[in-house]
Backbone:
């Protein structure tokens, strides 16, 4: 007997971090502990009910123009989507159509293999070295595409622009996607490489540094040709990805650069303080350039710490796979007060 279930696209979905209903200290999904700019609030209240009658602008012109101007590019170099997850998924669909495998690290954003499975893209993961660094020689030779976050997640380890330029130069046969979800927290961006190479797509998000995870805004910068291909796929899938309220909110965030930079500096300062405290408590971690720290205790088991923190209303993230990161916890940076409470509770657990 034939069964309809034989023709279902079966996938194992991505598991996002928990969003508890109760008020907790939430250090588990790399959200920003500070609200977005007050100008974002004004922009949202400024959207009239009547304007919601109509479909949003499918070209997302106001937001694309603001992002293009901010980075000094033309509008044709910018693509926007419903969070960078949407932009990345569209990038996989558009650019990764070779029979050769797409390459990415073994320890990285755990959505990449999910999209590869969903779209039936062949892929090979390349193990990071013992210091969680990407081994450049793993990315030599012809392939179907490359995707790497910089800084990498969940390790927080970053590589300089020159590292990526070598990879991009060596791969005219495929598109290289650099996922810069955390680059605003103090590291070099590869955006300028998109002027020189037409096969690189740099993807950014408003979710972390701009504190707008709830709005869902992601974008990509690339050559005009690359962005045209990406847009053609998007318009073949869903014309109205960005809603009217979100478009207005996104523009307001871009326009308040002073507020944005000040909050990013606040997070960086708290991160550096937290690093010192964690070291004193017997944790080791690769040097993080992002808004989280990926840490392992010298003697106390990660799952035990995770559970004990949770009992105390503090949520961090633990990944059981791959096995070599099972001893680590990913700790997002909260406010100073949240991190002081976190360190105080943590010191009782690991003492
Ligand atoms: C958070 C994150 C994303 C997705 O962010 P969006 O909220 O969808 O914009 C993409 N890549 C990495 C590495 C991330 O950590």
Residues:
């Amino acid at each position: 007997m034939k069964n309809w279930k034989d023709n279902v696209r079966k996938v194992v979905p991505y598991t996002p971090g928990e969003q508890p209903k109760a008020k907790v200290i939430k250090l588990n999904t790399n959200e920003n502990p500070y609200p977005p700019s007050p100008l974002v609030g004004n922009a949202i209240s400024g959207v009239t009910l009547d304007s919601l009658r109509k479909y949003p602008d499918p070209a997302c012109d106001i937001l694309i123009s603001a992002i293009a101007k901010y980075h000094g590019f033309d509008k044709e170099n910018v693509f926007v989507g419903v969070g960078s997850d949407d932009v990345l998924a569209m990038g996989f669909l558009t650019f990764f159509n070779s029979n050769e495998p797409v390459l990415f690290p073994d320890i990285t954003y755990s959505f990449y293999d999910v999209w590869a499975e969903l779209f039936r893209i062949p892929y090979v993961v390349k193990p990071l070295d013992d210091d969680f660094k990407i081994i450049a020689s793993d990315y030599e030779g012809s392939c179907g595409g490359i995707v790497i976050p910089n800084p990498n997640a969940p390790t927080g380890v970053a590589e300089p622009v020159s590292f990526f330029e070598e990879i991009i130069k060596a791969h005219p046969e495929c598109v290289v996607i650099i996922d810069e979800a955390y680059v605003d927290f103090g590291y070099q961006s590869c955006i300028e490489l998109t002027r020189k190479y037409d096969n690189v797509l740099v993807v950014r998000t408003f979710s972390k540094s701009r504190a707008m995870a709830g709005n869902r805004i992601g974008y990509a910068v690339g050559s005009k040709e690359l962005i045209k291909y990406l847009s053609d796929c998007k318009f073949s899938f869903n014309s109205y990805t960005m809603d009217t309220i979100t478009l207005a909110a996104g523009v307001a965030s871009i326009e308040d650069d002073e507020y944005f930079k000040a909050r990013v500096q606040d997070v960086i300062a708290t991160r550096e303080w937290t690093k010192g405290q964690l070291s004193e408590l017997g944790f080791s971690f690769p040097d993080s350039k992002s808004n989280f720290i990926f840490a392992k205790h010298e003697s106390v088991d990660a799952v035990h710490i995770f559970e004990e923190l949770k009992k105390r209303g503090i949520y961090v993230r633990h990944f059981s796979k791959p096995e070599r990161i099972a001893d680590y916890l990913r700790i997002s940076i909260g406010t100073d007060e949240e991190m002081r409470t976190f360190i105080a509770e943590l010191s009782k657990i690991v003492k």
About this structure: DSSP finds eleven helices and twelve strands in the chain. The pocket of pyridoxal-5'-phosphate is lined by residues 30, 83-85, 109, 149, 153, 179, 181, 205, 207, 213, 218 (CB under 6 Å). The longest helix spans residues 257-280. The longest strand covers residues 200-205.
